[in-house]
Amino acid sequence: MPQKNDDRDETLETCKYCEANPYEEKEIKKEKINPIYIIALSAIFLAVGLYFNFFTDQKLLAEILFLIVAVISGYEIVPYGIRSVLKGKFSISFLITIAAVGAFLIGEGAEGASVIFLFFIAEYLEDYAGARARRSIGALIQLTPEIAVVKRAGKNIKLHAHAVHINEIVIVKPGDKIPLDGIVVNGVSSVNQATITGESMPVTKREGDLVFAGTINEEGYLEVKVTKMSNETVLSKIIELVKESRKKKSKTEKFIDRFSNYYTPVVIGLAIIVAVVPPFIFGLNFDTWFYRALVLLVVSCPCALAISTPISIVSGITAGTNNGVLIKGGEYIEAMQSIKTMVFDKTGTLTEGKLEVTDVMPLNNYSENEILQIVGSLESKSKHPLAEAVIRYIEKLEMDFKDVDNFKSITGKGIKGSIDGEMFYIGEKSLFKDNSEFPNELVQKLQNEGKTVVIVGNDDHIIGLIGLMDKIRALSGSTIQELKENNIKTVMLTGDNEGTAKGVSSRIGIDKYYAGLLPEDKVKIIDELLENGEHVAMIGDGVNDAPALARSNVGIAMGTAGSDVAIETADVALMHDDISKVNYLINLSKKTMSVVRQNVSASILIKGSFAVGAVLGFVSLWMAVAFGDMGLTLVVILNALRIGRAD
Prior knowledge:
The chain is elongated. It has 22 helices and 24 strands. The N and C termini lie far apart (about 65 Å). The strands form 4 sheets. Strands 1-2-4-3-5-11-6-9 form an 8-stranded mixed β-sheet, with no helix packed on it. By secondary structure, the chain is of the alpha+beta class. The chain is about 50% helix and about 20% strand. Among the domains are: about 5-15 and about 145-230, Calcium-transporting ATPase, cytoplasmic transduction domain A, CATH 2.70.150; about 350-470, Calcium-transporting ATPase, cytoplasmic domain N (3-Layer(aba) Sandwich).
């Protein structure tokens, strides 16, 4: 039976589609121990163990402490490595397990504990990034309106949005979210479309105009004919695009798994050949060749090689975090060194998303101060974003406002009010359509510069124009210039109009821009760039940017100003809203990957040399441990730590 609602003409019917949660994770994970506790506890035991090992005679106690570290940090790593072998796969976990066990067997527990501990940290960082990505999809879904008020059989009925059919009429009151994509069939209002287009300034919607699910009706009453079901709306497409794009990541992880599948069995096989072939085929001394096989196995233990990349990446991530750049995984550091095209969202990224007054043009014998006083007095009664920008500008001039009588908001057009007995009007062109002296050329000039124009008039004349523009971030121009010096192409994407896009791009030196875009259009442009073989990074701040951020090789979000969805979806977040940090990120990437190459090359070269020496009998077991394994691991770690000292 329908449940009565507060409004007498509205009822809420039970929705058969919503008996279950609309968004549930398919994968139900078991509760785990908090990784932070494991890292903290392991670090304490490792530090105490190192103290006993190097500064006291309590070697046994030190080994016990190292074993505790290995058990705590490896409680998932070791079992997973063993299970992978039983399934016929040699995973990186098994590779680390062999390294740790080998180290303990030859009495080097410090190394065995350190290897598992550092690998656990690397795995935690990767899992953390993955969890944030999953949460971003949940945040997107929360933006989807659940309830729609539908006109049926002469009544207004509340239904869950996905129970509404195409061509039905939904009612949207001031302050409500528009529940589904559709066409306005009755009413006029300003609609905030920031969730879809990313543009902060509301757009006037009247009969015949398209509206989108998840956008907000700010002031008027609207009736909307539904044109798309809930699973076909622009917002639902954003959700699906983010899901699909996430599946295209993690190439580095796949490479490491493939590498470990071959490296470990090859090393074990070679050690067996060294131990068996000379004694049993050629009749040589078994003890000698078994010892050489053991040295080969120890010196080939992939500790330094396995750690060389993760420790360098962790150092790079830490350096970025200390400089206000949150990097969610090593693959994104790696990808940034190859970026050749940097794509920017406009509003909130290159600009601050905050309108400012740029021009005041008095007409018909009115002074600039008179225009500002009239506009300030009327706009002080309004809550429109344009009004807020004008008020901020006038307040800086410390100008007094006058009393306003008969104030009225004209929905979708502007405002009017009487000052000192004279009626004044402020608004857009449609408010003055009957005025024969409309200054088309001046208005067009301002619009061509990418500015929004506010027109001021009385009953007889148009008395002034005010131009407003989204404030460009102070460092946008210099950031673009530095990118160009590094031979990186710059592209701007925006849901704003052609004039605004052209004005902003020309002022800061953008190579190419695209205007009037929906989220799916942004994704198409990113796809085109990728299909042309370009490595693309995308920088944005809004919900509408999320799909394009996810699709790019690297997605970068403006942290403080950005929406939660953009930050969660992106691979990198600039937490201080400092756009110049993109150049720092590129330099950090190049520095980090240079160190990675140094570490990998050194590991392979030294390990290879020691392996040959082991087979020929030139390397003893203690030399293999001290120089070919533990010493090399320490060198790799120290080299990686240099990244953290780089600005």
